[in-house]
Specification:
single chain; 162 residues; mainly beta; Jelly Rolls; four-stranded antiparallel β-sheet; 1 helix; 10 strands
């Protein structure tokens, strides 16, 4: 009886969580939950509506071996004409109490982080996004070479509804 209730709950959750505005979703798994700062995560996408604005999200899946409250990323978005926009981003990953902000059951939490809002992909061709982490321990100039606890890095693109 308990299994049937759980199955019904999962089916309802799946239906409710469907996103009709999603036009692109891809994840890259980090080997053994370790993200090497010298190995950027790369995404390429094309053939998006050239008039409709889109929202971009970086998705981060972490486990309990991630030791930090925040996550610093460096992104580089390259347009088909070669124009490139580079940005350093900071995302809050946990409350001061240590409670993860991401969603999910079990030890893996998924964080859907705003990257760009209402961007129009008016140029035809391939867009490229490269993401690296820029984590450092307080007081250290040198970055953390291998970041523990990041299991997957993803990119989602949705049609903007506003």
């Amino acid at each position: 009886m308990h299994n049937k209730f759980l199955l019904v709950l999962v089916v309802i959750w799946s239906i409710v969580s469907c996103n009709n505005n999603l036009v692109y979703s891809e994840f890259e798994a980090m080997e053994n939950g370790k993200w090497d700062m010298n190995k950027p995560v790369n995404f390429e996408f094309s053939s998006l509506d050239s008039v409709q604005p889109h929202n971009l999200f970086i998705n981060i899946r972490n486990d309990n071996t991630f030791q930090f409250n925040n996550l610093f990323l460096i992104t580089e978005l390259e347009y088909p004409d070669g124009e490139t926009f580079k940005d350093t981003l900071e995302y809050k990953m946990a409350e001061p109490t240590g409670e993860w902000l991401g969603k999910g059951l079990g030890s893996i939490k998924e964080n859907k982080l705003w990257f760009h809002e209402k961007i129009v992909f008016s140029d035809s061709g391939v867009y490229k996004l490269n993401i690296i982490h820029a984590m450092r321990k307080n007081g250290n100039v040198d970055g953390i070479h291998v970041l523990d606890g990041i299991t997957d890095v993803g990119l989602e693109i949705e049609k903007s509804t506003h």
